[in-house]
Amino acid sequence: MKTATRSSALAVGLLTLAVGAAFAHGGATGIVKERMDAMTEISRNVKVVGQMLKGTAAYKPDEIERAAKAIAGHAGDAMTDLFPEGSLMSPTEASPEIWAEWPEFSAYAESLQSSAQTLEGLAAQGADKKTVAAAFGKVAATCKTCHEAFRIKK
Ligand code: HEC
């Protein structure tokens, strides 16, 4: 079970990275604001689960289920729909590479959705905490992978 413990620690580390720039979107409007708000909402839910797994909040499987469902709801097509071609209005941090590498970008959005759905299902089934932590690690990893490829830190 070492693996699960490690991925839980990893998830918490990734969480810090993912949530770091949550308030960077001052002045955004339109679709850029919409996707920043959606990302912020995702990030809020990731934080809720992360805190439970870190032990800084009470562990509640039904809350994890709800948070994972919310994340999944903002992923997949719901996420890619917020990235119409060329939407690079200031102060966006989106990279123009998104549209050059669209299949890769949308695959990350899909992978976020399927990993969040897996997490949701495990929490609903009352899976043990280590299994849930490993599934959460996969969710958090997609944030980092996509950001590294397609988000420009300003
Ligand atoms: C498919 C790619 C992709 C995935 C997956 C993804 N993001 Fe993002 N995220 C982006 C891009 C691109 C931006 C920059 C959007 C912009 O500035 O227009 C961004 C921006 C953000 C922001 C900054 C929002 C703001 O207000 O400026 C946060 C916070 C964030 N993401 C959190 C997350 C978390 C947490 C996850 C994983 C649970 C995640 N993201 C998954 C692509 C992704």
Helix content: over 70%
Give the CATH superfamily.
Answer: Cytochrome c/b562
Q: Could you name the ranges where pLDDT drops below 50 across 5 or more consecutive residues?
A: none
Q: Major beta sheet, specifics?
A: none
Number of helix segments? Answer: 7
Question: How many strand units?
Answer: 0
Q: How is the CATH topology named?
A: Four Helix Bundle (Hemerythrin (Met), subunit A)
The CATH architecture comes to Up-down Bundle
Mean pLDDT: 90
N-C termini distance: 39 Å
* Overall body shape: elongated
Task: Walk me through what this model shows.
The protein is mainly α and 154 residues long. The protein has a single domain, classed as Up-down Bundle (Four Helix Bundle (Hemerythrin (Met), subunit A)). It is built from 7 helices and no strands. The radius of gyration is 15 Å and the shape is elongated. The model has no long low-confidence stretch (mean pLDDT 90). Bound molecules: heme C (HEC).
